[in-house]
Specification:
The chain is built from no helices and 11 strands. The protein is an all-beta fold and about 120 residues long.
Length: about 120
């Protein structure tokens, strides 16, 4: 069982930056690939960025490539999302998710989810 708690959301102007954090419970955090998904009002939840079990590989949706960076610290059971050059279209609830096994960009492949944190980018 893994519990995930996100923090760091808020309101930012276009072009600004935010850093989201996700704290995970449990002793086997290193066995989980991690991903950040987001869901805007009236839209489906979509993959934003993911990271492999050991942090050696990261994967980004085209919409965030070059602007978002994901990192993890397995010793601290934590994963972070650094978001730069934010755009109004980045406005969404952001969710941290954990998958037992290899990384995936499909939400249905993830086993555990956080409660989400709101990110609002004003124009």
């Amino acid at each position: 069982q893994v519990q995930l708690v996100e923090s760091g959301g808020g309101l930012v102007q276009a072009g600004g930056s935010l850093r989201l954090s996700c704290a995970a419970s449990g002793r086997t955090f290193s066995r989980y690939a991690m991903g950040w998904f987001r869901q805007a009002p009236g839209k489906d939840r979509e993959f934003a960025i993911g990271i492999s079990l050991n942090g050696a590989s990261t994967y980004q949706a085209d919409s965030v490539k070059g602007r978002f960076t994901i990192s993890r610290d397995n010793a601290k059971n934590a994963v972070s999302l650094q978001m730069n050059s934010l755009k109004p279209e980045d406005t969404a609830v952001y969710y941290c998710a954990a998958r037992s096994g290899p990384w995936s960009r499909l939400a249905r492949d993830y086993d555990y989810w956080g409660q989400g944190t709101q990110v609002t980018v004003s124009s």
